[in-house]
Design brief:
Blueprint (H helix, E strand, L loop, with lengths): L13 H4 L8 H12 L2 H15 L3 H25 L6 H8 L2 H36 L22 H14 L3 H26 L15 H12 L19 H30 L10 H8 L3 H36 L17 H17 L2 H30 L14 H15 L3 H25 L5
Helix pairs in contact: 2-8, 2-10, 2-12, 3-9, 3-10, 4-9, 4-10, 4-14, 4-15, 5-6, 5-14, 6-7, 6-12, 6-13, 6-14, 6-16, 7-12, 7-13, 8-10, 8-12, 11-12, 12-13, 14-15, 14-16
């Protein structure tokens, strides 16, 4: 048991010795977080969750999910300022709780990011098909969506192709990949502003009645699902070894991106459910659909084209974050060492990026979107609960943060509230999601005992 709980040393100087190029600043990190968060949640999940779970009360679901994420974001911010190393939640849990819990935290986050990338690929495909069909171009039904024999679909070929394209972009280096991300985030904000400015004139208050058609249960279930929409702020913490001043910039990037994303989600949800009766929103492209619903086909076309482009930011940000985590895990020996190889030219973890890209492409092509969202939420909630517990242990073992380090207020009260909220939201998800979660956890334990434990660098 002592070997399973062996811990990494907290060494702030490790940041300087990393082989990764250090060129990111606060603005890059805020845009990285926004690139990951503002995408599928607004352009895809808002419609399906309003139609099937929460109705207009989806705005309350977003507030609940944002509150839970804010508590988690504070914990991540303190960890990032005190342990400035790549790997995010994995590195923090490894340093505080020990190897097996560090690995299982990583395994949960790997699931979170893989499914998030795949779900965006699926949502992106929906917008592309909507745009192409508007131009009279129709794909064969079997190649239009993920595996569903009842609907006659088998593989989403567009989702697979775009995931592979994003993989290539991320392999070109942090600055190049995030420069494209930053441009797309600006375009994305412009689209959202256009939607809000045009849509607000078509809001009919009657569409907000009944406000909570599925009751309190619908609101809480909606919160557990749209929690998925806030995923991405934790990707900021995985960039630590490529940031010039991680103690200062990473907390700013995490909290700044979360605040801005929350405001956007609430505004868009209010206008969307005010424009269109919630029962009509069970579509893959709800924002563009709302514009078509009120007769603005041209604006809908602009939003569709923009969404096609800007949803890529989510994939870029998530894939960037996940490859950095897998790179660190490979470096520590818990996954094959080849995943920690850094390309001499681009200074990026090339093999880790290729591996993540291939797996994400397969998932995006065959697994239905709604299944991806719920499983992503449950593994993330569990990871966030571990991080909240980690702050309590960090303070117990290493004391208060230094003056130049971020500090979570009201410890242990805030972390305990964070854990309770996470566990409550997990209980709102269905049995099938819990079974899938259990299978993923067992698979992670098997990988650790059969491979990770024997090859651990710390063990050697």
């Amino acid at each position: 048991m002592k070997n399973y709980m062996r811990k990494k040393t907290i060494d702030p100087s490790h940041h300087q010795s990393s082989k990764l190029r250090k060129e990111l600043k606060t603005v890059d990190l805020i845009l990285l977080g926004l690139g990951a968060m503002v995408g599928t949640g607004i352009f895809v999940i808002t419609g399906t969750t309003a139609a099937n779970n929460a109705g207009p009360s989806l705005i309350i679901s977003f507030v609940i999910a944002a509150f839970s994420c804010a508590l988690s974001a504070l914990c991540y911010a303190e960890f990032a300022s005190r342990i400035p190393t790549s790997g995010g939640a994995y590195s923090y849990a490894y340093s505080i709780f020990g190897e097996i819990i560090g690995w299982m935290t990583a395994w949960l986050v790997i699931c979170e990011y893989l499914l998030a990338i795949a779900s965006v690929g699926s949502g992106w495909s929906g917008y592309v098909h909507g745009f192409l069909e508007g131009m009279g171009i129709h794909f064969p039904l079997a190649l239009k969506a993920s595996y569903n024999v009842a609907n006659g679909t088998y593989v989403d070929i567009i989702a697979i192709l775009i995931t592979l394209v994003v993989t290539y972009v991320v392999m070109q280096g942090a600055k190049k990949a995030l420069r494209l991300n930053n441009i797309m985030v600006i375009v994305k904000f412009s689209l959202i502003v256009i939607f809000l400015l045009v849509g607000i004139f078509y809001v009919a208050p009657d569409n907000w009645t009944p406000f909570a058609p599925f009751g309190v249960k619908g609101i809480t279930t909606g919160a557990a699902i749209v929690f998925f929409a806030f995923l991405g702020f934790d990707a900021v913490s995985t960039a630590a070894e490529e940031v010039k001043n991680p103690q200062r910039d990473i907390p700013r990037g995490i909290i700044g991106s979360l605040v801005i994303a929350t405001a956007l989600y609430i505004a868009v949800t209010l206008v969307l459910t005010g424009m269109v009766p919630y029962t009509n929103l069970n579509v893959k492209d709800p924002v563009a659909f709302a514009m078509r619903f009120v007769g603005h086909d041209f604006v809908a076309g602009i939003i569709s084209v923009g969404a096609i482009l800007t949803l890529l930011t989510v994939m870029i940000s998530m894939m960037y974050g996940l490859t950095r985590m897998v790179y660190v895990i490979g470096r520590d020996g818990l996954l094959p060492k080849t995943l920690s190889v850094v390309d001499e030219k681009t200074k990026t973890p090339k093999n880790a990026t290729i591996a993540i890209g291939i797996v994400s492409a397969i998932l995006s092509g065959i697994i239905p979107l709604e299944k991806l969202a719920e499983l992503t939420s449950i593994v993330t909630l569990m990871a966030f609960a571990i991080m909240a517990a980690g702050i309590i242990k960090l303070r117990k073992d290493f004391g208060e943060p230094k003056i130049n380090e971020f500090k979570v207020p009201l410890v242990p009260i805030f972390p305990i509230i964070s854990m309770l909220v996470c566990f409550y939201l997990m209980t709102q998800l269905g049995m099938a999601t819990w079974i899938a979660f259990g299978i993923w956890v067992v698979a992670g334990l098997l990988i650790y005992f059969l491979y990770g434990y024997k090859h651990s660098e710390l063990g050697k």
